[in-house]
Amino acid sequence: MTVASRAGLRRSGITALEICAVGALYYASGRLGLLQQLVRGQVTPLWPPTGVALAALLLLGQRVWPGIALGAFLINISLGPSVPAVLAITAGNTLAPLCACALLRRAGFRTEMNRLRDVLGLVFLGAFTGMLISATVGGGALHLAGALPNSRFWLTWWVWWTGDAMGVLMVTPVLLVLRSAGRPKGVPRSRWVEGAALVAATVAVGFLQVSPAPLLFLAFPVLVWAAFRFQRSGAAPCALALSIFAIVAAARRTGPFAGHDLLVNMIALQAFNGAAALTALLLAAAITERNRAHETIEQACRRLAELAAQTAPEVSGPLALGDDSRDDHRETAADGPDDGDHSAASPPYGRRRQ
Q1: Which of 104, 145, 219, 249 is a plausible cystine mate for 210, CB 3.0–4.6 Å?
Q2: H/E/C letters for each residue in 188-245?
Q3: Whole-prediction pTM value?
Q4: Which tens digit of pLDDT belongs to each residue from 187-239?
Q5: Cα(293)–Cα(301) distance, rounded to whole angstroms?
Q6: For the chain, which residues make up each domain, given as ranges?
Q7: Which residues of 194-204 are buried (b: 16+ CB within 10 A; e: fewer)?
Q8: Which CATH class is domain 9-179?
């Protein structure tokens, strides 16, 4: 066996492992998402597999799409009304992240998400536009299979679309953060204390969200804190955690979700989730851009200072000689003209007439 064939076999094995890992993660996140189903058995207010699928495509490439299809099929085969409907839903769940990934790459999306344009691209291209495919195909498949009546089609379609979009906005940034995360070095102890305080505040606000009191708005100061102090690394996980608490409150019909029908609760829940995600991600990207601009200005100032320090000795020499010559000239002028040349110094109108 040649070296080239061994390398190709190794690459094929790595790709197969990646596909299996993506499929397993897709299936596991889907089972978790179904725990909070609000409309039928396949529609939830937050569908994490879409975020998993898009993150996998952005990080590993389009070669892992069979894992997405495999995970979607395994989830829907036990829920779908018929095999054709399950295949159609699987196709929609696979095409949606593929199209979203293609749109993001065409727009120049960076997985670091350190620019405002990256966050806006994820929101409008990855979430709102790409997930139209899965909602339309899935809702249409259920309707054609007779599992979804006409009176509930648009409600199901809207919940499906917003659930997939929230999965992209909430889960994809967290996975991108985990991909680039590393053990911090040289971090002061005060920073660790602040991070622990942020985690405690997030949990405390989350429990307040599921309480009978309508206190969803308390999430936004925590999101602002996370975005300002920790940027994307703190804002993305914080937004996901607070969104999960809000979904639990909506499922239990407590707090601001008490006493309302399903449509009103879904509108309020998805409005909160969207506002939380946009606040966290946009503010974190803006702070990151500001910090980068500040670092660039500092580097430019240091370079200018170094150039000034290098050119200062070269300039000081000629200037010093010129000052000495001017001093000598002033000393000569102060001594006055020579004693033998008084006539030249006398003014012409000072002579007496003969």
Answers
A1: 249
A2: CHHHHHHHHHHHHHHHHHHHHHCCCCCCHHHHHHHHHHHHHHHHHHHHHHHHHHHHHH
A3: 0.80
A4: 788 888 999 999 999 999 999 988 888 888 899 999 999 999 998 889 999 99
A5: 12
A6: 9-179, 190-312
A7: ebeebeebbee
A8: mainly alpha
